[in-house]
Design a protein that fits this description.
The protein is an alpha+beta fold and 122 residues long. Helix content is 22%, strand content 34%.
């Protein structure tokens, strides 16, 4: 089906352990298994959302995915605790909010979703 996706990348500055602890804290809040300290990724269903976390040498990616029947009805970060997001270690370098739809929208849906603004795509 359709889904909302929020993706961001944080640059790491000698804070790999701090970042791992931050991911572990989110897992603790939702009572889901946490990644091992030496783990570089986590693909986990948290109930209302999925998290795909990947830690590389200089940066880490977070991708939050929320299934939805209606595109743009909710934000993929709506389920994420605001205090947890605000305390994210590292420097934010990429932030993307996507709405993935199952079928090609018709002209009326496009008009409604984008409030009549001109839309370009490829």
């Amino acid at each position: 089906g359709s889904c909302q996706v929020a993706h961001f990348t944080v640059k790491l500055n000698d804070n790999r352990q701090e970042l791992h602890a931050h991911v572990v804290e989110l897992c603790r809040r939702y009572s889901v298994p946490a990644p091992d300290p030496d783990s570089s990724c986590l693909y986990q269903d948290f109930g209302g959302f999925e998290l795909r976390w990947e830690r590389h040498l200089e940066f880490a990616n977070f991708t939050f995915i929320v299934a939805t029947e209606t595109p743009f009805a909710t934000d993929a970060l709506a389920f994420i605790p605001k205090d947890w997001l605000a305390a994210m270690p590292g420097e934010l370098v990429v932030a993307v909010n996507l709405s993935l739809v199952k079928e090609t929208p018709d002209d009326q849906q496009m008009f409604d979703w984008f409030e009549g603004q001109r839309v370009s795509g490829a």
